[in-house]
Specification:
The protein has 404 residues and is an alpha+beta fold. It is built from 10 helices and 14 strands. The protein folds into 2 domains: 7-171, no CATH class; 184-386, no CATH class. The strands form 3 sheets. Strands 2-6-7-1-5-4-3 form a 7-stranded antiparallel β-sheet. The protein has a 5-stranded mixed β-sheet with strand order 10-9-8-11-12. It starts with 6 loop residues before the first strand and ends in an 18-residue tail after the last helix.
């Protein structure tokens, strides 16, 4: 098990008004320290002295806390952890796995992380409530919707745009054991059907209902006409944020349940390789070379992101490590899963596939999922054929030992 993979169990936090004010202060301090670190790196240019590292920034933080009482009133562990998170973000940026750290904004990035969590820092109150110890605040209640995972290393407290507080515990997850039946499944991800399985199942990621979507459009139109800084604009933003949070909660719940079900039912899961970031990239272009069909592409991008493609694949790899493989899905929607004939004319519509060679008819997404499963099994069989029984063996003649 890769220890770099962590399980995040999120719970609703229930602070009282005094605790909420203290939590917002922690968030402001963490954001202030982070933004100062971003500014230090933004001023660096080639030929100048290197930007300070984590140790130098910690010494600067100590000097700042001695000079400013409002900063010293906060938790030093919260502020130092913001610097440590920034240092990790810069390492990820230099290793070309993440984007460059950017400024954090009040009302948008509200949160902080606490490390060094011990079992005694989490307390069970009753069947419905728990409590977590927060530095300089004390015990803050949280909903006990499920058991807190064991081996908790740290937690992150966040506040979303709807005003809800959450605490997320990080721990190394226990993988879901394979059923041992030898069954495999191919997963084809789409827009109309979020995930089609080679077994014939069609899974759809839940989104806002028709009335909820219409209400969100009305709120967005009213928000455009509202005066900036007014109480009316704040109420409209909060109402729209609630609807978006509702859709995100449904999407996450669907991804968790679907990934758990697939990990329990199948020994191996084959998922098509997709560059989701490139597929959902804006088509606006530039001023000199504007894009085409920009509004249609923007609508497609929203539908792709609302289908939960990336979240489903990530959670599958977390729950079934080593049992999820990416498959090249080129022409999988045009290839017949029975005879193997490839023709664009066979894909008669989004949902209908009828092979022009053999006449095989099936749902188009299920046909693609079967092809993905077949390609994955073929690749796995070829990989096993190249591996000699009992592991790699060096068959080259070896020189005799001097002791012989």
């Amino acid at each position: 098990m890769d220890v770099s993979v962590v399980l995040v169990s999120r719970f609703r936090l229930l602070p009282d008004p005094a605790q909420e004010a203290a939590l917002l202060t922690h968030c402001a301090h963490a954001r202030f320290v982070w933004n100062l670190a971003v500014e230090q790196y933004a001023h660096w240019r080639q030929g100048r002295t290197a930007a300070p590292g984590y140790n130098d920034q910690c010494r600067q933080l100590t000097e700042a806390r001695a000079a400013f009482d409002w900063l010293a009133a906060g938790s030093v562990t919260v502020q130092q952890q913001a610097l440590r998170d920034f240092a990790q973000a810069m390492r990820n940026f230099f290793s070309a796995t993440h984007r460059r750290p950017t400024w954090r904004k009040a009302g948008v990035h509200e949160g902080f992380r606490q490390v060094g969590v011990m079992p005694e820092h989490i307390r069970k109150l009753n069947r419905k409530l728990s409590a977590v110890s927060v530095p300089k605040i004390g015990w803050v209640r949280s909903r006990r919707s499920r058991a807190v995972p064991g081996g908790v290393r740290s937690y992150r407290v966040t506040r979303d745009r709807t005003g809800r507080w959450h605490v997320a515990f990080a721990a190394v997850p226990e993988p879901i054991p394979a059923p041992g039946t030898g069954e495999t499944v191919g997963v084809d991800r789409g827009v109309a059907v979020s995930a089609a399985l080679s077994t014939g199942e069609l899974l759809r990621c839940p989104d806002l209902s028709v009335k909820e979507a219409e209400r969100l459009v009305r709120l967005q139109r009213r928000l455009v006409r509202a005066k900036r800084g007014s109480n009316r604009r704040k109420r409209l933003k909060r109402a729209a944020a609630r609807l978006r949070a509702r859709a995100a909660d449904r999407r996450k719940d669907w991804a968790e349940k679907t990934s758990t079900d697939l990990a329990r039912r199948f020994d191996r899961v084959y998922v098509e390789k997709l560059n989701i970031r490139a597929m959902s990239k804006s088509a606006r272009g530039t001023v000199t070379a504007p894009g085409r069909n920009v509004r249609q592409k923007a609508s497609l991008n929203r539908r792709i992101l609302a289908s939960g493609w990336g979240l489903l694949a990530v959670r599958l790899r977390h729950k079934a490590p080593g049992r999820v493989d990416g498959v090249n899905a080129a022409y999988s929607s045009q290839e017949c899963s029975v005879c193997g004939h490839i023709a664009a004319e066979s894909r008669e519509s989004q949902a209908r596939f009828r092979c022009v060679a053999c006449g095989h008819e099936v749902h188009a997404d299920i046909n693609a999922a079967i092809n993905i499963n077949n390609r994955g099994r073929t690749t796995l069989a070829a990989r096993g054929a190249l591996q000699p029984p009992g592991g790699a063996v060096n068959r080259e003649p070896q020189p005799e030992s001097p002791a012989a």
